[in-house]
Amino acid sequence: MSQPRSQPYKMRKPKIGAFLLGFAASGFFDGILLHQVLQWHHLLSSLQIGILRSLRGQVVFDGAFHALMYVVGLAGLYLLYRSLPRTDLKAISHRLHALFWAGFGAWHFVDAIVSHWLTGIHRVRMDVANPLAWDLAWLFLFAMIPLFAAWRISHRSSLGLVTGKVIGSFVIAATIAAGAFNAVPVSAMDSDAVTVVLRSDRSLADVIPVLDQAGASIVWSDPTGAVWVLRADAGRLRAFDLYRGGALFVSSSLAGAACGSWLKS
Questions:
Q1: Coil, strand or helix: which one is 30?
Q2: Neighbours of 220 (CB within 10 A)
Q3: Per-residue pLDDT for 70 more than 80?
Q4: How far apart are CA 185 and CA 258, in angstroms?
Q5: Residue closest to 138 by CA, chosen among 101, 107, 162
Q6: How many of the other CB atoms lie within 10 Å of CB of 255?
Q7: Is the pLDDT confidence value at 155 over 60?
Q8: How far, in Å, CA of 184 to CA of 60, rounded?
Q9: Residue spans per domain, the chain
Q10: What is the pTM of this model?
Q11: CATH 2.60.40 at 193-260, yes or no
Q12: Cβ-based neighbours of 59, under 8 Å, separated by 6 or more
């Protein structure tokens, strides 16, 4: 009796592993694209209290979220690895493929229901008049379509295989395109604006001599005084002087503008 009962258990392990990998991949896709590249929101954008009023606080919790996705992804890899000696993964590859996309879609359902609507800790877009429309559009693209692909793949449908490949290509293309788009500074920032993030042990007082020498003015700062947007005549405010004065990050070109492009003067 033990053999028939143990066999289904052995088959469940790689399936659960594939689902967890898809779930973690979806979490990384959401976090990297929306939190970091497009910067439409952070994990706790709606909780503007205490340390969460600062960019540093928000990024710390984004990092904790990504660490959790690492744990989920490693659990999936571990289950697949443990299944290798006992399971013919090639024979069930279509099921594993389907479960990967099922996990990918499931993440976005969980995120929409729990994060967007029940707790309201963030929305897909925080700066629009109708955030629900963005929530629903994102849910359709990255939850319903992957789940449909998973269902078709599980039934060995050629349409499902094609849909799965299209979704994968779209995810990669969307991330690359968003990065390229966000590398251009937002129009609200002047072309001579410089974004400066100070080290945790420094304050604006440490770079005041540099600002005075360059004749720079302050356009904006975050509530904690860690992030500043400055304006100076072209070439007068040198990045080297700012780093020497205590800057951790200086952005005044397309190469680094994406990191600070959420700022509006």
A1: helix
A2: 15
A3: yes
A4: 7
A5: 107
A6: 9
A7: yes
A8: 25
A9: 2-182, 193-260
A10: 0.68
A11: no
A12: 42
